[in-house]
Design brief:
27% strand, 325 residues, 7-stranded antiparallel beta sheet, alpha+beta
């Protein structure tokens, strides 16, 4: 079974990790406190990783999401094959690392990071090229669960088998919905529930410009939640606390949580989060409304679709693009 963890790190060098969920220990053998403050690239087995820059994707709307097959090095020196799915949030990257330890010692022989950087720096206007690698294969087709917008659930990751590992491809996607990274402090003694410790500036876009990040830092998260979804939010937090596996949930948040108490305006969001000690590390994305559909906003992917897409056979029209050498 795949094992996943999430992390938030700065996209400007040296790509320091700000937060990482507890499952990093199962994948890499490091505890979160050992990884925080170190470079996200330190854990790459790729010898060219130190030359890679994470700054370039955030300036290109076509690269809102990047899926990179990669080898990461564990604390004991062994290597694990992963899919690293990075999502841009202004000056930060929210990355979901899905590891496949059951595949054994599978190597991406050629340096994908080095080639990807070369493509961006020198061949940005060239036609797509093929990523020639060895011993790595295409992701096999798998069914994607239908989004269950009223439930708290675990994402279904793409299926990878040892027999199918022949080539590796980097995939990118335009994910146009507003997103923000959240970190909540969930100290048990706090009677108000989890408190917002960190949020990216992009939260203003999620709330349609009605709320800035500095307004909600140090505020109880439940202050933001619409009354009709308060119980659902509490169940989600309890579920994150009891299980380190990343989970998905949809909620209604109040557009003006600190203003008129009679203001019933809400914004629908998807949350993808995981626990890390006494913290919750989450990605928040604004859901698509009927107005967005009427305006033919393109292309849209829910967080569940982003995480669970089979990149080789995705039926999401024009969402995923393959970078090839």
């Amino acid at each position: 079974m795949p094992i996943s963890y999430v992390m938030i790190f700065e996209r400007i060098g040296p790509e320091n990790i700000l937060y990482v969920s507890a499952n990093c220990y199962q994948v890499l053998g490091y505890r979160p406190e050992e990884m925080v403050g170190t470079s996200a690239l330190n854990y790459s087995y790729d010898p060219h990783a130190k030359h890679y820059s994470c700054q370039w994707p955030a300036d290109n709307p076509e690269l809102g999401v990047t899926m990179l097959p990669h080898n990461m090095q564990r604390k004991d020196g062994s290597v694990v094959y992963v899919h690293a799915l990075s999502i841009n949030c202004t000056g930060h990257l929210f990355t979901i690392v899905v590891a496949y330890p059951e595949l054994g010692d599978i190597r991406v022989k050629d340096s994908i990071l080095y080639k990807l950087q070369y493509e961006v720096d020198y061949e940005s206007n060239s036609e797509r090229s093929r990523l020639a690698t060895s011993d790595i294969g295409s992701v096999t087709s798998t069914d994607t669960e239908e989004a269950r917008h009223e439930d708290i659930f675990y994402p279904k990751y793409p299926k990878v088998t040892k027999e199918s590992l022949r080539k590796a491809h980097v995939y990118t996607a335009r994910a146009s919905r507003a997103k923000a990274c959240f970190v909540l402090n969930c100290v048990e003694e706090d009677s108000q529930g989890p408190v917002v410790e960190f949020v990216t500036n992009s939260i203003s876009s999620v709330f349609g410009g009605d709320l800035d990040g500095h307004e909600i830092v140090d505020q109880p998260f439940f202050t933001l939640v619409a009354p009709e979804h308060m119980t659902k939010a509490a169940v989600f937090m309890d579920s994150l606390r009891s299980n380190h596996t990343p989970q998905l949930c949809t909620l209604h948040l109040r557009r003006d949580p600190f203003g008129n108490s009679d203001d019933s305006r809400v914004v629908g969001v998807e949350l993808f989060g995981a626990s890390s000690g006494d913290k919750f590390v989450m990605l928040c994305q604004k859901t698509r409304t009927l107005d967005d559909i009427a305006q033919k906003e393109a292309p849209y992917m829910s967080l569940e679709e982003i995480v669970s897409s089979d990149y080789e056979s995705s039926d999401i029209n024009e969402a995923w693009h393959q970078l090839m050498w």
